[in-house]
Design goal:
The complex is a heterodimer.
Chain A: H1 3-6, E1 26-34, H2 41-47, H3 53-63, H4 75-78, H5 87-99, E2 100-108, E3 115-119, E4 122-123
Antiparallel strand pairs in A: 1-2, 2-3, 3-4
Chain B: H1 20-30, H2 32-42, E1 45-46, E2 52-53, E3 61-65, H3 71-78, H4 80-84, E4 90-95, H5 98-113, E5 121-127, E6 141-144, H6 160-163, H7 174-185, H8 193-205, E7 212-218, H9 223-231, E8 237-248, E9 251-261
Parallel strand pairs in B: 3-4, 3-6, 4-5, 6-7
Antiparallel strand pairs in B: 1-2, 7-9, 8-9
The chains are: A alpha+beta, B alpha/beta.
Chain lengths: 132, 268
C-alpha cells in the first residue's frame, strides 16, 4: 500500500474515531518496496492541499526516511524551477507518496494500540468481533 | 461509449462477477447529466495554471465501498478526464473480502494502463468493513453497489477471518468461496441491513461541503422509503434517482440514487 493512502486512514475502532491519537497510524516492523510511478508535477500540486503535513512528517521519521521540511510547501514550489517540475522537493514527494509502498508489516493505532497487518501490500482493517 | 475494464483475471468463485448492476453504475456515472454534475462540483483545471484545480481543497477522493472485481472503480479511475473534466482525482477501494481487494488492484492497474493520458491516481484497495478505517470527512465521492438481495439473515462472520485468507496448500474450500460470495449479495431484511449501516456512516464520512454518494438499490429495497430516510438526515440533504434499468411489472428493477447536500459547494 502506498504511503499516500495512509493520509486517509485511521483506526477502524468506533471508540477511536474522536481521538487525535488514532491518526496517523504508526508503522511497525514494515518492509517497504519502491514501485515506480510516472512523475506528474501537476498531480502533486493537487494532492498537496489534501495532505496532513505534520502526520506525513511523523510517518517519515518513524520509517527512517529522509526528513521533509517541517512546514508544508506552497503549491507554487512544486511547479517552480527551470523545467516547471519543482525540482528536488517534487521528486522527493513523488517518491515518498506515490512510489514508496508498505509490502509487509503492521500499522498501529496510537490510541488503543490495536495492530493492523499488511500482507503482500494489502492492509487488513477488519476487527475481531469483540472490538467492533 | 467508454471501454469497460477487463476482469478476465478475476476468479468469480469468490469475487462478485460484474453484472447488470455494475454496468448500470458505469452507464450512469458516464452519462452526460452526471458528468456535468461532477464537472461543476469538482472543478476544471485552469489552463493558466497548467492543470492546477481551481478548488483549494485539491484533488477529490473517490471511494468505492465493496469493489468486488473492481470494475466500477477501474472505470472511474481510467476515465477520470471524461467523468470529472480533469484527471486529478484519487481513487480508493474497500472490500470485506481480501480476494476482492487483490482483484481490484489488478483491474484498476490494467484499465489505467490502457488510458495513459486520462487516468487518475489509484491509491489502494484496503480490506475493511464498509468505510471503517477511512478518516471522517475525507470522501468526496462515495460509490456503493451493496449486497441488496433480501435474505433471511446476513452471512455469519464468525469464520470470516479464516475464510478471508488464501490457503496455498489446500486451495479454497467450497464453504469458503460460498461465504465470500454471499457477502457480495446477501442483504438481510429487505436487502437493506448493510446499506442501512452505510447510510448511517454517510454524514460523518463525506466531505461536509462537496461530498456526494452514489447508491444502487433494487426494487425490494423500497427506494422511496430510502429516499425519505435520506431527506430526514437533516436540513439540506438531497437525493435524486439518476439511473435506472430493467422495468419489472412497472417497477424499476434497479436504480441509482445520488445523495448530496444543498448549498454546497460554490460553483467555482
Amino acid at each position: 500500500m502506498k504511503l499516500l493512502t495512509l493520509n486517509f486512514l485511521t483506526c477502524a475502532r468506533r471508540a477511536c474515531k474522536s481521538s487525535a491519537d488514532a491518526f496517523p497510524l504508526h508503522p511497525r516492523d514494515v518492509e517497504l518496496e519502491i514501485v515506480e510511478a510516472e512523475p506528474n508535477p501537476s498531480f502533486l500540486s493537487n494532492i498537496l492541499p489534501r495532505l496532513e503535513w505534520p502526520a506525513l512528517v511523523t510517518l517519515c521519521a518513524e520509517l527512517g526516511l529522509p526528513g521533509l521540511p517541517a512546514e508544508a510547501p506552497e503549491v507554487a514550489e512544486l511547479t517552480s524551477g527551470e523545467d516547471g517540475k519543482g525540482g528536488k522537493l517534487a521528486e522527493d514527494l513523488h517518491r515518498l507518496l506515490l512510489e514508496t509502498t508498505v509490502k509487509e508489516g503492521a500499522l498501529v493505532c496510537g490510541n488503543c494500540g490495536h495492530e493492523y497487518k499488511v500482507k503482500e501490500g494489502i492492509a487488513n482493517f477488519l476487527l475481531p468481533s469483540h472490538l467492533v | 461509449m467508454l471501454p469497460t475494464p477487463s476482469t478476465s483475471h478475476v476468479s468469480f468463485d469468490n469475487v462478485y462477477e460484474p453484472a447488470e448492476d455494475s454496468f448500470l453504475l458505469l452507464d450512469t456515472l458516464s452519462a452526460s447529466s452526471e458528468t456535468h454534475f461532477l464537472h461543476e462540483r469538482f472543478g476544471q483545471p485552469s489552463s493558466a495554471t497548467e492543470g492546477i484545480v481551481d478548488s483549494p481543497q485539491g484533488a477529490p477522493l473517490i471511494v468505492e465501498v465493496g469493489t468486488g472485481s473492481g470494475v466500477v472503480l477501474a472505470f472511474v479511475n481510467a476515465h477520470a478526464d471524461v467523468l470529472f473534466g480533469h484527471r486529478h482525482i484519487l481513487t480508493l477501494g474497500t472490500d470485506i473480502n481480501s480476494f476482492a481487494c487483490r482483484a481490484t488492484e489488478t483491474t484498476v492497474e490494467k484499465a489505467s494502463a490502457e488510458a495513459p493520458n486520462g487516468h487518475g491516481i489509484f491509491l489502494d484497495a484496503v480490506n475493511m468493513d464498509l468505510t471503517a478505517a477511512i478518516r471522517p470527512g475525507t470522501v468526496d465521492v462515495l460509490i456503493f453497489n451493496p449486497p441488496y438481495v433480501p435474505t433471511a439473515e446476513l452471512p455469519n462472520l464468525s469464520q470470516h477471518h479464516q475464510y478471508n485468507t488464501h490457503n496455498p496448500s489446500t486451495g479454497n474450500s467450497f464453504e469458503q468461496d460460498s461465504h465470500l460470495l454471499s457477502l457480495s449479495y446477501a442483504g438481510g431484511v429487505e436487502g437493506m441491513e448493510t446499506t442501512n449501516r452505510l447510510l448511517e456512516q454517510l454524514p460523518e464520512i463525506l466531505d461536509p461541503e462537496r461530498g456526494v454518494a452514489y447508491l444502487l438499490l433494487c426494487a425490494q429495497n423500497k427506494p422511496e422509503k430510502v429516499k425519505e430516510h435520506i431527506r430526514g438526515l437533516g436540513a439540506g440533504w438531497l437525493v435524486e434517482t439518476v439511473g435506472a434499468s430493467g422495468k419489472h411489472g412497472g417497477w424499476e428493477k434497479l436504480q441509482i440514487l445520488r445523495i448530496w447536500r444543498a448549498g454546497s459547494p460554490p460553483a467555482t
